[in-house]
Every structure is written in structure tokens, then in C-alpha cells.
Amino acid sequence: MATHLAFQLRYIGVIPQEGCMEYGFHLEEKGKDLRLIVMKIESGLFRGSELMVQEAPDLCYQKLLADLQSEEAEGPVRARVSVTASDIARYRESHPTVKARKAGSRRMVTAPTSARAQAPAGPAEDAPKKEHGRGGR
Question: Which of 1, 19, 23, 71 supports an S-S bond with 39, CB 3.0-4.6 Å?
């Protein structure tokens, strides 16, 4: 049986902390008080290729959305939630990194040197030159 989720989830911003980054969200549900949920990512998870800073808000949003969808079965989402390496791995499965996408689609095509040297002049080079002035005065 599918359940209809009636809530609004809003990203409110990042809160840099010593040793971690915190990402705040407001959760509005009909008939309930506004909830503040803070997702915490330890700084060590940003080192190496684990997670790019630019990906963190979306990762937190996606994780929180999944947690809210399973909230009825697993209990309410806490006000403070830590993001783990396994959360990042799950995110990676559905969101490949920009580097990986670019590397997979990048193909370099260049004309041989002799072809470039013999290329015909373009239309801009063949066009007559216009004189700039005040129009015959």
C-alpha cells in the first residue's frame, strides 16, 4: 500500500562547525509543528574522493527524504542526524561524480596538423572590410 507524503522540506543552509559541516532543513507537515533537522557530516568524509562539498546539500536532502519516507516504519527522524560513509556509498550508486561522468564522455578529436595548416579561410576573413565613420559628413 503506497502512502502519500504530505510535507514540505526546505534546505535552510550550511553551518560550518569545528570538525564537521552541518546542513539545516525545515520540515513542515500539515497539522504538526515546524521541525528543524540538522544533518551532520564529519570533515574526514570530505577528504580524498569520498564526498565533494558541492554534493553535500543534495546528499543530505536525499538521505533525509528517504528517512522521512520510512519514518512510519522506523520511528521519527531525530532532530540531529549523522551522515555516514555508507550513506555516501548509497548516494554514489545513484549519483555518479561529475569527474566520473566527464571522464566517461570526454573524447578528444583533433584534425591532423597538415589539415589545419591548409584549412580554407573562413567567411569573416573573406568579407570586405567596412570603414567606420560618421556616414559621409
Answer: 23
Burial-class residue 93 by CB neighbours within 10 Å (0-12, 13-18, 19+): exposed
Q: Name beta bridge partners: 23.
A: 14, 39
Letter for the amino acid at 30?
K
What are the residue ranges spanned by the domains of the chain?
7-98
**Secondary structure percentages of the chain, helix, strand, coil, to 5:** 40, 25, 40
CA–CA dist 41, 81 (Å, integer) = 9
Long-range contacts of 26-35 (CB under 8 A, 24+ apart): 27/68, 30/6, 35/79
pLDDT single digits (tens) 109-126: 445 555 445 545 545 545
Give just the sign of the alpha carbon dihedral 114, 116, 117, 122.
positive
The residue assigned the cell 559541516 is 21
C-alpha cell, 66: 528517504
Q: What is the dihedral of CA 72, 76, 80, 86, to 10 degrees?
A: -30
